Q: What sequence folds into this?
């Protein structure tokens, strides 16, 4: 069916998120909701009378607004903004039952139940009143491999990225692709229609974040506390092993240097002694008789004793 209105185009491009949520809602087994559905508590406080109210609502995805300048948008900052307390006033005032009127208020979201799989939706499509049409926001987004939900507090849970959907192209002419990390070999694969290929450059090899101008849906899986602890212990153990190896190498290098110096000194002394004996023999051979050999030997011994006389420090001067 042809689509003619701007809103129709918007519906078409948001089809990935809406279609996925509709499928999850209509799955007959409770497994889908146990994996993908979380629960938020919406708290508000009237600025006039101080009355606090709270309501619990299920959610399938957390929407993140791509607002601000043209600089990189950080998912970590978007999550922090989502859970940060905000103040509403003017046309956004909330109705207070106690005051029986609209009033300024503060409100915030708290997560009551964290899903096993968390889906973040980056809101890349907005209505531009200048063009009176929907446009795509091509912000570069920094996607973290690991994420804390909420960012702080005792209830904070660690999640790690395992898949992300990208919208490639413009609002009226684009397509969706998905990149998934396999649980079999822990490598990232790219799915583009019927084509599936292993990425030649694996994400998150050089940094803990990756940059994308097309990322639209991010899928994070919950990391068990034991798994996080084992990862941390493995990192600490690896660091300890590296430090031990470094100390061992330094000690070995130092010992080799000392042994080399001692061996060099001993070798020098052996060569001097050999040279003196050779000189003695040479003199004896040239004299042709025992008397000359004896005289040469006595002369050499006299030279040796002269050279090895104790110094003022009480030790032989050995050149």
A:
């Amino acid at each position: 069916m042809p689509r003619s209105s701007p809103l129709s185009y918007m519906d078409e491009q948001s089809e990935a998120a809406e279609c996925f949520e509709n499928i999850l809602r209509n799955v007959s087994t409770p497994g889908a909701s146990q994996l993908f559905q979380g629960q938020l508590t919406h708290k508000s406080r009237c600025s006039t009378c101080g009355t606090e109210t709270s309501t619990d609502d299920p959610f399938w995805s957390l929407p993140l607004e791509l607002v601000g300048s043209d600089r990189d948008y950080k998912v970590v900052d978007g999550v922090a903004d989502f859970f940060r307390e905000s103040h509403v006033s003017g046309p956004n005032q909330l109705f207070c039952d106690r005051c029986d009127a609209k009033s300024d208020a503060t409100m915030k979201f708290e997560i009551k139940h964290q899903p096993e799989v968390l889906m973040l939706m980056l809101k890349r499509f907005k209505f531009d009143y200048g063009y009176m049409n929907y446009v795509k926001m091509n912000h570069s987004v920094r996607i973290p491999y690991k994420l804390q939900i909420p960012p702080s507090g005792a209830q904070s849970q660690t999640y790690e990225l395992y898949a992300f959907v990208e919208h490639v192209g413009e609002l009226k002419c684009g397509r969706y692709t998905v990149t998934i990390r396999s649980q079999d070999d822990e490598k990232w694969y790219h799915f583009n229609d019927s084509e599936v290929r292993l990425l030649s450059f694996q994400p998150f090899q050089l940094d803990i974040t990756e940059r994308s101008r097309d990322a639209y849906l991010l899928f994070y899986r919950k990391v068990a506390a034991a798994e996080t602890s084992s990862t941390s212990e493995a990192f600490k153990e690896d660091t300890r092993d590296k430090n031990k190896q470094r100390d061992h190498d330094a000690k070995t290098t130092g010992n080799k240097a000392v042994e080399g110096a001692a061996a060099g000194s001993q070798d020098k002394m052996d060569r001097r002694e050999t040279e003196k004996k050779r000189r003695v023999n040479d003199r004896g051979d040239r004299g042709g008789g025992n008397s000359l050999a004896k005289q040469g030997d006595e002369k050499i011994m006299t030279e040796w004793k002269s050279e090895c006389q104790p110094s003022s420090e009480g030790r032989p001067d050995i050149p």
In short: Residues 1-13, 283-297, 310-319 have pLDDT under 50 and may be disordered. The chain has six helices and 19 strands.
